[in-house]
């Protein structure tokens, strides 16, 4: 027996003899179908890299249906009878959809490489009606509503394109291939594997119970969409897998006048469609509109497409702590869950009754060998019943709840007849606030006295637990109280609530995203300064762009995984890999003793620090998850599984050492770890006038993970004279040297090759060396290719982050806010090694654009029990500017001044920033908007707005050397370029191509940028510090000038001859048509980058949620080499900064030192709905940089430093909230730093439930 399916029209089979039971669709596509356009990263449905489209016959409607899924969660045997479409299946130029790919390539800058254009978008053009709903469009329609007609015409909706060929059979858009599987028989299928595990695909409920009768006590799982694996990793003990996704009885629904019955295997997407349809047709189901809005906040579209109602409820059953949104909604409205546990009942009708229980009782029910068959939802009269539900998350979407809530009250006028008050996220057993429900019966709901007594009772019965990384009990308890108040405000008649409070009853509503970009372009220099798409955009949108892990599997190839230690401060006695080595498919284990050379991945010649950072820990464990060795196996899955079976024994000791994984832990518990770094400090030039005005404060900045879509990856291939290394590194030279030193090989035996990276941000400057060394060691010792791709959990846990920083300051200032004396001491978090200090940058950027003659800055740092921290986009810069701008805001708070006036007061009198700021104030209409916001805040107690401006001076310095090679081919005059700079999504190759075309005077289409390697770019400096694109362009420019000099005599003799003929004549005269130039730091002078950012946001004081309504960024980019690329860099850098300041929270277990937020499930960078709604980018006009490359300025990092403006806009909003709360005069908000999460925002507003009033 075998599973049959197609991928892009080609038929494939899966059978137990060749395909293991745990194989996912993503595995099969990449390893067996050999298609690499489909990627993976998180392997839990959280990142979107793996999405494909499935097509099949719906079990109930019998109609052909298309839906997008996460291929990393879809089991391959569940694909029986389905057609699978990957990005490669829609790339042919003969197919109409190539025009859509082209549109996406033209209108997306794709400034972070790696994720191809995938099945999620293709579903929109496949003709499935469900994807033409507003819900489906929600994720993709972001065109400005006021866009001009030309832009609107250019950006037609995908489903509105008129020249797409339609299939005459189905009426859908032609995919180029008709399925051969549409008439496949729907018979039950059973597969038995060599390890005695079983996989079954069934089509009736009766077949499920027949399997239950045969499996005895074997652990089993019913698979609907398998999305639960993205929350709780599936047990490795499971023996039986039963796919129920095609069971018609579980996929149907039935509506009566009094109820709606929905099958347990109905997906969330299907449920949303059913609920919308039923609510539109029957007024007594209008509450389903509220549930649909709530369901839209669950996970993401592909997860909702596969995840089922029963599956979600079963997670709650198995894990009571899971904050199930479906459970909380269904419990509040009085849903009934039907459970079947026997085949003895008649199955002549699907809706025969089995066991019927409430959702609350269900989660405590033993579901062994039982099936959740349906959920029955009651009809509710909207005249007397009022239902609302809420979900509060760390970001706007694709996150689980801090707290979720659902409320249903029955009213007679204002008197409560019945009440259901349900919360999730309090503790695993808490569902109903029963005491509050009981109290409310018979009470007038819309009186202050009733509300306050109800809140007091609710306050007493809410007793949140605290299991990290959950939010604090204080927040969750007060949030629950606030949500109940929000519900009352929402349903109360207008006359019962004062106008100032009424807006608190609403949730924040996001408008359609829009953006404007204003920049200069110089046509006489085109293609230089021309706004073009990235030259890789097309191949990225068609899945042809290749990354490290896209290299085809090689003969005898092995896969690697780190073995890590969990006992921080422990001293290794022995490492026993015998159990792991007995596992089928495991080949070898290597540790420090197997290294022939030096056991460090930080070559001392290259790094600013001198400490040894061991590839594999040899003795003392310095942080949780420190690698002690490497397992090498036949597959990535086996390697990672086997790594967990390696046993480490430690020396016994009576000494107890505190584990201090964070800087705050060190300062509070072992301050002696803090070291002074006077070489990075700045002395004051004196003091100003004596003044009584002074402030003191503390500002805490946390860590930030480099959220690259490609984790640390490396492929090492032994060759006859050394080793070929394909590494995701930003610094080939450092990686080459580290490997050579480790293997005791000459550097010329290590051949580095890099095509592109799937994001870098500094994570791959030095940290990737450890992965490259480990895989190189295994390849060298085994003489076999070794591939090492880190899982996200390992990547986040092992790799260092942006430096955390704590700043203490004392400042004296005059009545205008001008600083007369400033003493600032900042301490940065090294992690476990001092190798990569950022103090110099932090101290320098602390000065920003201000008059700093009275500034004294002391640099300090501490070693913590966490991975060694490393450079992260704008290292030191973000922290330095953030610290000084916090001081400016603090001064303004004391003086009750507009913070921009304090900032202006501290500018040097001759600073260029005076003019830039005045122009920016005018262009943003800041003064007027601030007055309007202040007026709005006076009239709204619970929704507040804030606005702020931050100026920036970014001194740009250049360093290192890097080669560029330009080659001209006489066959057709085409040009190849290769540089030492690494393309990692920032558009380096595009700028290089534009530079070459401009310098040689040829069309851009003639230029091709080739991969970087250590042969043509030996000793190349790191691609980082914002200089990578600029120095690469400089090298290319100089190499082209060398070629132009060689061609000059020929051109002078042949003035009217075209390029191709010039090159032919050059060959005839034996002219060298290849030129190399080595950029050096002295080639480019330093200069300043000026910028300013303005942010306006809105805060829901009752939840802590925010909307960034508008952001304006002015940046001086000189003459932009590629405006579209630079716009993307500025936007992307700013949004990454927003993540640092607002959402990205790294939480450690203080007992073990383990990082608890190490997955997409619990670490949340900004999403599509967290970006500014109105995003306006403008380049300083007519700004030519005489010191820059081709008169340009760098753009990679400055905007990240300007994102702190969002924090000060929050200050403005929260100041108003604190005034209303009566706590404004209590002092400056010291508790806001990085990140200022939803929890921090809520708590900073000083809201208490006694403030929750109606009148």
From TrEMBL:
<feature type="binding site">
    <location>
        <position position="1025"/>
    </location>
    <ligand>
        <name>Mo-molybdopterin</name>
    </ligand>
</feature>
<dbReference type="InterPro" id="IPR008274">
    <property type="entry name" value="AldOxase/xan_DH_MoCoBD1"/>
</dbReference>
<feature type="binding site">
    <location>
        <position position="50"/>
    </location>
    <ligand>
        <name>[2Fe-2S] cluster</name>
    </ligand>
</feature>
<dbReference type="Pfam" id="PF03450">
    <property type="entry name" value="CO_deh_flav_C"/>
</dbReference>
<dbReference type="InterPro" id="IPR016169">
    <property type="entry name" value="FAD-bd_PCMH_sub2"/>
</dbReference>
<comment type="subunit">
    <text>Homodimer.</text>
</comment>
<dbReference type="InterPro" id="IPR036010">
    <property type="entry name" value="2Fe-2S_ferredoxin-like_sf"/>
</dbReference>
<dbReference type="InterPro" id="IPR036856">
    <property type="entry name" value="Ald_Oxase/Xan_DH_a/b_sf"/>
</dbReference>
<feature type="binding site">
    <location>
        <position position="47"/>
    </location>
    <ligand>
        <name>[2Fe-2S] cluster</name>
    </ligand>
</feature>
<dbReference type="InterPro" id="IPR000674">
    <property type="entry name" value="Ald_Oxase/Xan_DH_a/b"/>
</dbReference>
<keyword id="KW-0479">Metal-binding</keyword>
<keyword id="KW-0520">NAD</keyword>
<dbReference type="InterPro" id="IPR002346">
    <property type="entry name" value="Mopterin_DH_FAD-bd"/>
</dbReference>
<dbReference type="InterPro" id="IPR005107">
    <property type="entry name" value="CO_DH_flav_C"/>
</dbReference>
<protein>
    <recommendedName>
        <fullName>Indole-3-acetaldehyde oxidase</fullName>
    </recommendedName>
</protein>
<dbReference type="Pfam" id="PF20256">
    <property type="entry name" value="MoCoBD_2"/>
</dbReference>
<dbReference type="GO" id="GO:0005506">
    <property type="term" value="F:iron ion binding"/>
</dbReference>
<comment type="similarity">
    <text>Belongs to the xanthine dehydrogenase family.</text>
</comment>
<dbReference type="Pfam" id="PF02738">
    <property type="entry name" value="MoCoBD_1"/>
</dbReference>
<dbReference type="InterPro" id="IPR016166">
    <property type="entry name" value="FAD-bd_PCMH"/>
</dbReference>
<feature type="active site" description="Proton acceptor">
    <location>
        <position position="1197"/>
    </location>
</feature>
<dbReference type="InterPro" id="IPR006058">
    <property type="entry name" value="2Fe2S_fd_BS"/>
</dbReference>
<dbReference type="InterPro" id="IPR012675">
    <property type="entry name" value="Beta-grasp_dom_sf"/>
</dbReference>
<keyword id="KW-0285">Flavoprotein</keyword>
<dbReference type="InterPro" id="IPR036318">
    <property type="entry name" value="FAD-bd_PCMH-like_sf"/>
</dbReference>
<keyword id="KW-0001">2Fe-2S</keyword>
<keyword id="KW-0576">Peroxisome</keyword>
<feature type="binding site">
    <location>
        <position position="42"/>
    </location>
    <ligand>
        <name>[2Fe-2S] cluster</name>
    </ligand>
</feature>
<dbReference type="InterPro" id="IPR037165">
    <property type="entry name" value="AldOxase/xan_DH_Mopterin-bd_sf"/>
</dbReference>
<keyword id="KW-0500">Molybdenum</keyword>
<keyword id="KW-0274">FAD</keyword>
<dbReference type="InterPro" id="IPR016208">
    <property type="entry name" value="Ald_Oxase/xanthine_DH-like"/>
</dbReference>
<feature type="binding site">
    <location>
        <position position="873"/>
    </location>
    <ligand>
        <name>Mo-molybdopterin</name>
    </ligand>
</feature>
<dbReference type="Pfam" id="PF01315">
    <property type="entry name" value="Ald_Xan_dh_C"/>
</dbReference>
<dbReference type="GO" id="GO:0071949">
    <property type="term" value="F:FAD binding"/>
</dbReference>
<dbReference type="GO" id="GO:0005777">
    <property type="term" value="C:peroxisome"/>
</dbReference>
<dbReference type="InterPro" id="IPR036683">
    <property type="entry name" value="CO_DH_flav_C_dom_sf"/>
</dbReference>
<dbReference type="Pfam" id="PF00941">
    <property type="entry name" value="FAD_binding_5"/>
</dbReference>
<feature type="binding site">
    <location>
        <position position="391"/>
    </location>
    <ligand>
        <name>FAD</name>
    </ligand>
</feature>
<feature type="domain" description="FAD-binding PCMH-type">
    <location>
        <begin position="192"/>
        <end position="382"/>
    </location>
</feature>
<dbReference type="GO" id="GO:0050302">
    <property type="term" value="F:indole-3-acetaldehyde oxidase activity"/>
</dbReference>
<feature type="binding site">
    <location>
        <position position="372"/>
    </location>
    <ligand>
        <name>FAD</name>
    </ligand>
</feature>
